Amino acid sequence: SEHNLLTNKGIQLVELLGEGSYSKVYLCRKYDQMTDPSKAPVIAMKIVDTSKTSTDYINKFLPRELSVLLKIRHPHIIKLYLLFQRKNKFYICMRYAERGDLLEYVLAHGLITENRARYWTSQLAKAIEYLHTMNIVHRDIKTENVLITECFNVKLCDFGFSRFIGQEEMSSTFCGSISYSPPEVLQTKSYDAKKSDMWSLGVVVFVMLVKRLPFIETENPKLLLTEQLQKSYVVPPKMDQILTQYSKKVIKHLLEPIPKKRWGIEELITSQWLAMDFRLKCRTFAESVAYDQAKKTGEEYASQRRKEREDEEKVKKRRRTWSQRKYDEEEEETQEKSANESQ
Questions:
Q1: Separation between Cα atoms, residue 327 and residue 331, nearest integer Å
Q2: Residue 117, pLDDT score
Q3: Can you tell me the distance from the alpha carbon of 138 to that of 235, in angstroms, rounded to the nearest whole number?
Q4: Which pLDDT does position 342 carry in this prediction?
Q5: Protein kinase domain spans which residues (predicted)?
Q6: Domain 100-296, what fold?
């Protein structure tokens, strides 16, 4: 039974934290033989029931999520402790974030001070820099996927739409929530997923500073797209007076409808807004270790992708040569036949 399976793994269910159409998230205690379960540290466990999901999810999105989760480790990304499967269920054990998600926090506490918003934006930016350096895109950045710990640090979570991507590779799958999707995704064009992540982060920053979504329309993609292209996000006059010019500049450059003009992660990290807090100018030791590892992994992946592309080109070339040879032989046969008939 499931109870026996979890007991053997040293996991005790405490309470249900939330559920979706095919998954449930529980607060649990993780104990060993030496620990009293009631005093064991708490973790969060997501149970995914694949019998309730689509074939697309089982064959494409779940393998991608698990592949990414097993490769990433960063101080501002929720930590994976344990991953196991039994029949059609996957059990994903992660760090528990005591203060819930960013959306809950904003709704409960109202406006976040600009200093705190800056600090949290810096942490999220470093998490995204790490992912993008590893050639991983998240594709579902939103306030519900930003978790807050007891010590008021933020951690990015939910890698259900994430994937590895080549240097020049474009995405075409519509992912994420409409309110956090950039114009190019709503236009169902192939898109640069790294720039798409930056737009979504821009919406998160806006919500932290203004306590509302940037665009009025939240349901009709066509109307929302028009608002986005016209840059008609609204900062209420009161907030406009309070916010620094540098924070408004960040919003402007992240919510830029033209992907090529939109800031990438480096421009955000080196922005004047983040530089206002001297603590954010340098990476912490843990951030540096993670970033160095990301560079190494990213280079290995890029090299692997280059080799794959070269191999694909060789195969195509062989096919073209073979097709040409076949065509030449057929042409020769036809000419011989014509010559024989004319005799």
A1: 6
A2: 98
A3: 27
A4: 66
A5: 11-274
A6: Transferase(Phosphotransferase); domain 1 (1.10.510)
As a whole number, mean pLDDT of residues 81-102 equals 95
235 close to 186: Cβ distance less than 8 angstroms:
no
Sorted by where each begins, the domain ranges of the chain are: 2-95, 100-296
CA distance 304 to 328: 36
Q: Please state which of the ranges 28-42, 152-166, 278-292 shows the lowest mean pLDDT.
A: 28-42
Mean pLDDT on 10-39 = 88
All residues at 6 or more sequence positions from 59 whose CB lies less than 8 Å from its CB, including other chains: none
Question: Is residue 323 left, alpha or beta, with left meaning phi > 0 and alpha meaning psi from -120 to 50?
Answer: alpha
Q: What is the pLDDT of residues 129-153, one digit of tens each?
A: 999 999 999 999 999 999 999 999 9
- 80: amino acid identity, one letter: L
Is 260 known to sit in a ligand binding site?
Answer: no
With contact defined as beta carbons under 8 Å apart, do 262 and 198 qualify? yes
State if pTM tops 0.85. Answer: yes
Written as one string, the DSSP assignment of 106-154 is HHHH-PPPHHHHHHHHHHHHHHHHHHHHTTEE-----GGGEEE-TTS-E
In Å, what is the CA distance from 157 to each residue of 44, 140, 142, 147, 162? 12, 9, 10, 7, 11
* Topology alike, domains 2-95 and 100-296: no
219 burial (CB, 10 Å; 0-12 / 13-18 / 19+) is: exposed
Residue 230's pLDDT is what? 96
> Can you read off the two tokens belonging to residue 92?
């994903």
Residues 6 or more apart in contact with residue 24 via CB below 8 angstroms: 16, 18, 46, 47
Choose the catalytic residue: 49, 56, 140, 240: 140
Assigned CATH class of 2-95: alpha beta
